[in-house]
Amino acid sequence: MVTVSMVVNGTKVDKEVEDSLLLAYFLRETLGLTGTHVGCDTTQCGCCVVHLNGISVKSCTVLATQADGASVTTIEGLAHGAELHPVQRAFRECHGLQCGFCTPGMIMAATELIDTHPGPLTEEIVREEMEGNLCRCTGYHNIVKAILVAAEEMRLPGRAAAGD
Amino acid sequence: MVSSPIFRTVGQPLRRKEDERLITGRGQFTDDFALPGQVWAVMVRSPYPHARLDGIDSTAALSMPGVLGVYTGADCIADGLGEIPHNPVPSTNFDVKLTGPGGGPVFIGSHALLPADRARYVGEAVAMVVAETRQAALTAAEAVEVTYEPLPWVADTVEAARPDAPRLWDDLPDNILVDSSFGDAAATEAAFARAAHVVSMVARIGRVTGVPLEPRAALGSLDAETGRYTLYAGSGGAVRQKHELAKVLGVEPDRLRVVSLDVGGNFGTRNRAYVEFGLVLWASRKLGRPVKFRADRSESFLTDYQGRDLVSEVSLAIDQNGKFLAMRASNLSNVGSRCVSLSPLSKGSGLITGSYDIPCATLRSRAVYSNTMSTQAYRSSGRPEVTFAIERLIDKASRELGIDRFELRRRNLVKPSQMPYQNAVGSIYDSGEYELNMDRLLRLADWKGVPTRREAARRRNKLFGVGFANYVESSIGTPKERADLIVTSGGIEVVIGTQPAGQGHETSFAQVTADLLGVPFEQVKITLGDTDIVSAGGGTHSGRSMRHASAVITLGSADLIAEGKKRAAGLLEAAEDEVAFEDGIFRSGASNRSIDWFELARLSGTFRIRRDNEMHTPVFPNGACMCEIEIDPETGGLEITHYSTVDDVGRCINPLIVHGQTHGGIAQGVGQALWETCFIDPESGQPLSGSFTDYGMPRFDNMPSFATEIVEVLSPTNPLGIKAGGEGGTTPAPAVIMSAIEDALAEYGPIEITMPATPLKIWSAIQDMRRQQSLPTGIKGVA
Prior knowledge:
The structure holds two protein chains of two kinds.
Chain A: E1 2-8, E2 11-17, H1 23-30, E3 49-52, E4 55-58, E5 71-73, H2 86-93, H3 103-116, H4 123-129, H5 141-155
Helix pairs in contact in A: 2-5, 3-5
Chain B: H1 19-23, E1 39-45, E2 51-57, H2 59-62, E3 67-72, H3 73-78, E4 118-119, E5 125-131, H4 134-143, E6 145-150, H5 157-160, E7 176-183, H6 185-194, E8 197-209, E9 217-223, E10 228-232, H7 238-249, E11 256-259, H8 275-287, E12 291-294, H9 297-303, E13 306-318, E14 324-336, H10 343-349, E15 360-369, H11 383-401, H12 405-410, E16 421-422, E17 428-429, H13 434-444, H14 450-459, E18 463-472, E19 480-487, E20 492-496, H15 505-517, E21 524-527, H16 545-572, E22 579-582, E23 585-588, E24 593-596, H17 597-604, E25 607-614, E26 622-631, E27 638-648, H18 655-674, E28 707-711, H19 727-730, H20 733-744, H21 759-773
Parallel strand pairs in B: 1-12, 10-11, 14-15, 20-21, 27-28
Antiparallel strand pairs in B: 1-5, 2-4, 2-6, 3-5, 7-15, 8-13, 9-10, 9-12, 13-14, 16-17, 18-26, 19-20, 19-25, 22-23, 23-24, 26-27
Helix pairs in contact in B: 10-11, 11-20, 15-16, 16-17, 18-20
């Protein structure tokens, strides 16, 4: 067992955990933040993407101890209170989700993509950059649309992204 | 009197009610539930496709830290557990009647939670370990010593049907569990005898799996005080799971509550009970602790109910004018090791003639056991298979007869004036404009621009292909549905027994209810998935939900309005027959007073009605589909550049949702054509597609955006004229992709590529054809 300390969605947490505990299960089972999902065991599906110090990581492939001292944002921490993040809004507006299981990872990965990509996003760039996230319901069509809509909105002055 | 409803929200792309929780991480998926004191179950799975179980020694596992129990098939028998009561033979009045060989009953292999005699597929659970933590259970499972005596096995569909194939069940003389014939054999033979042309082919539609992104999971508990079980488990219908698992446990259904709230994808994989669902409930009884199971992805690939796996031999008799005279088909479906559903075989059987007016047909439908995971209805069960057979056969006929593929189809399509149209195997198509669908599609897909795009591709050294397919499919499904409609002073609640996994029932059902009752959409709440609230219902499969829900809600709304009038009469001081209802308001002409639903409930108390409906008549969604692809002849790499569909879904309640369903359906059909396969090593019988690294998925970067158009030819079979949406995306997709590949490679001659058409297969086919024709590399006609 080892003690880890980190800031999760703005709140400091200190927990004693098994050395082998993955960040995804630390979030889900230790902290009860079940919005982060796990859809595979091979770092392929992207359902578990969270932001670790502002960077997208697949939390099923990060040990909780590796996040010691870090700041973690999950899907639960993306909105500013009742005000949804533009990417969350765009997913709803464009019907970018169906069953919703891949959605938290999609939204977290898309948010980082929009925040960090230099220059405007195109459909081709979105399809290439998001390749590490799988969805079985939407055929990706409306997710691509949602990300482009959110990117456009977030580029507008005075509409800075919430969260992180 | 009741005026007809005003459709304010029906037909509108309203944003979904379910999204807010799902985009903020507040969904309630199975593994999100945790109960105090819960422990973990892990399965010990057979590494052999077929093996006798000669003994299971759990001594070492039981001595490991945290281990609470190890359970086997012998323990299931000792505890008197029942088998999962699968009911695989579709039985609405309109399903084709499948029988065993010789017309007898269909033999259904026993499906105990854990087998005591043999393991019949790789991955079959033969023992369960329960421990304080999942890690402890995983470690202990490695220490369970199972003595297997490997037996001869068979996995391939055609091999399994041979009389001398290794047998799965001692009660059968071979592996054939269904052998039925339909249609008019004599008339068909006569038509073939006089035909100017006969075209034949064998279509192999391989084994794939649904891959819902939420791995299946279950959490079972027994309340010692009340003696009631609770199961949290996402499924395709909690009511069915309740009844089947109660039988397994040997308790009355009211002693089991099943909770299935947010479900992370289904596509058919979750429509039948899984052994682990019964096992966690049983273990919770034995240990007095809640027990949880969560499949990892490899377990899901091995042991989720799988899909397709049909071999279809088809022949078409054609006269000298290109008119189809008759069709002959023989379909062989691989059900795997247990028969959990014959829906794929049955639904396909009724649709072998596709969208075409073929006067006579004969069909032999067979199903066979094999040492593989069981198959189940998978997205658009049975229809992509037969659509593939007829549409690919017509493309072949077009080539052989030298008749343009669109022209050949136009000459034979069922015409609107023939509706309702009974096809040669007895299915009655309700409505549709099949040729108009083609015209709409050719416009949507910019058929006129094809030569320009073909030329542009050639200049880039790419082979350009256009694929085309028509389709008609059937939506049947469990015939019974129930709705409870409850009026309170704050809103209207509808409790109903369908089970969405992303289809947006909370939204589209609320649209229907809001318009039928004349209330705001925001004030309607749909409740699903908890059997302590939902008392009956058929779940979600076969495109049944919108049609069945709208029908029972329509009937229930009429009852509710009648009840409302009774109550309003008292409050408005009018006779009941003087109260009129229009657009959400009860009005008395005599007293010139009115009252709405919520005021009515506030003054007279909450009221509810319960309505049951039984509806057997199927509907036949239909459409047409085209795609354009480009192939790099030097790598076999393929890119889909355009993909267009026209889908007649009957009345469309929410186009945002229906288009979305179509998109996802397309991806699954394209996936089968290009990448997906549950590959089994022919030497060892080992499944080799066990993770996302070796099962080809549709991804962001291999899928295009789509052009989808909805057509609404109302069905005369149900109150709102609904057919079904979504599965129409899948139904023509394998045919249309393979048609495009054939078109792209046409200059080399006819190709034989089986699905999935991977780049290696395409590249190899190009090399073979070049060798045969001694062609230089590069594209013909391109310098």
